[in-house]
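Bit of a strange request maybe. I'm writing a small parser for structure token strings and I need a real example to test against, not something I typed by hand. Could someone generate the tokens for this chain?
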Amino acid sequence: MVERRVTIGWAEGLHARPASIFVRAATASGVPVTISKNGGSPVNAASMLAVLGLGVRGGEEVVIASEADGAEIALDRLAKLVAEGLEELPETV
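Reply from user aminoacidic:
Good idea to test on real output. This should exercise your parser:
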């Protein structure tokens, strides 16, 4: 299991537009990814309803994880997206 602990960089948290950006990026990563609040139960990062259901606010810490081969690069890119509140998945980290 590979995981990254990240502080949410979007001021509004994972709500509406930022959640949509994250879900699209998680889906495009090509590996199955989960996201959870620190200490919480993980949910499918490719599910908009599941991600919104976490109720993550700006500045809160989340855990992004995957058990897939090659997940390190995908998680690094997702972590950068979340931490910096970017509008799209970065090409490199």
